[in-house]
Amino acid sequence: MKPYVILCAAETIDGKIASKTGFSKLSCLQDLKRLHTLRANVDAVLVGANTIINDNPLLTVRLINGRNPIRIVIDELLRIPLNANVIIDRSAKTIIVTSNKASKEKISKIHSMDVEVLIMGESINLKNLMEKLYEREIRKILLEGGGILNWHMLYHKLVDELHITITPYILGGDNAISLVRGEGFSSLNDCIKAKLIDYKICSCGREVVLIYKVMY
Ligand SMILES: NC(=O)c1ccc[n+]([C@@H]2O[C@H](COP(=O)([O-])OP(=O)(O)OC[C@H]3O[C@@H](n4cnc5c(N)ncnc54)[C@H](OP(=O)(O)O)[C@@H]3O)[C@@H](O)[C@H]2O)c1
């Protein structure tokens, strides 16, 4: 059994979630409130190491009243800095998921800061991780990127729903970050399909929120 996973992101018209220089604050305040409402309604938020390194997010609920979900960071090489907000901020629990390749010294430093480090063996098997999280009563997860983690989660059929906010910008750039990175598929025969189940025009009048069910 695995938790229900909702992938949430704000992207430009050309499918970028961050610019070539890492700028990623794309959507309006109303959209951020929508994101915080989603956070308040899940047991955990899940992000990749680069998102922590580039954005240093708190991943808490601040723009509405609600409880903070557990923060889970996927960091196979344990590259995130010790002063990352998810490590030093005490307002929510954080679990850092890593592998045997991580520095033992850094693991014990993080432990001594009262943050859990979950070591998943030689590499991180996301399917096993989802099963482990389910056993810990984590039933609903908000996947907040970035593009590499989104790819691995989708490829392993672990994402159930997509909430994508389209913002009215074009960033372009071969080095800008796409919503989904990784190896990719060759054609519509092997790609992942999704069914549009709802859409909203944001009250700001400039953004569209698309909600899909993923069909594996
Ligand atoms: N606009 C938005 O809504 C939004 C949302 C989120 C993020 N972003 C942007 O996205 C950018 C980051 O995206 P990104 O694609 O570069 O990186 P990412 O997905 O945030 O992180 C990639 C890293 O996560 C770890 N990882 C992910 N999947 C793994 C797996 N299956 N097994 C082992 N490790 C795994 C690896 O860390 P190790 O190298 O330690 O192994 C990998 O290098 C940031 O610039 C951020 O601003 C935008």
What do you see in this structure?
24% of the residues lie in helices and 28% in strands. The longest helix has 12 residues, at 29-40. By secondary structure, the protein is an alpha/beta fold. It has a single domain, classed as Dihydrofolate Reductase, subunit A, CATH 3.40.430. The chain is globular, with a radius of gyration of 17 Å. The strands form two sheets. Strands 6-5-4-3-7-1-8-11-10 form a nine-stranded mixed beta sheet. It has a two-stranded antiparallel sheet with strand order 2-9. The chain binds NADP nicotinamide-adenine-dinucleotide phosphate. Residues 9-10, 17-18, 22, 24, 26, 47-51, 54-55, 74-77, 79, 124, 126, 144-149, 152, 177, 181 line the site of NADP nicotinamide-adenine-dinucleotide phosphate.
Bound molecules: NADP nicotinamide-adenine-dinucleotide phosphate
Give helix and strand order, one letter per element, not per position.
Answer: EEHEHEHEHEHEHEEEE
Numbering strands along the chain, what is their spatial order in the largest sheet?
6-5-4-3-7-1-8-11-10
Q: Structural class of the helix and strand makeup?
A: alpha/beta
Distance between the first and last residues' Cα: 16 Å
Helical residue percent band: 10-25%
Any idea what the shape is?
globular
Average of pLDDT: 98
Give the name of the CATH superfamily: Dihydrofolate Reductase, subunit A
The third-level CATH topology is Dihydrofolate Reductase, subunit A
**Architecture in CATH?**
3-Layer(aba) Sandwich
Total helices: the number is 6
Question: How is the biggest beta sheet arranged?
Answer: 9 strands, mixed
Low-confidence stretches: none
Top CATH class: Alpha Beta
| Number of strand elements | 11
Strand percent estimate: 25-35%
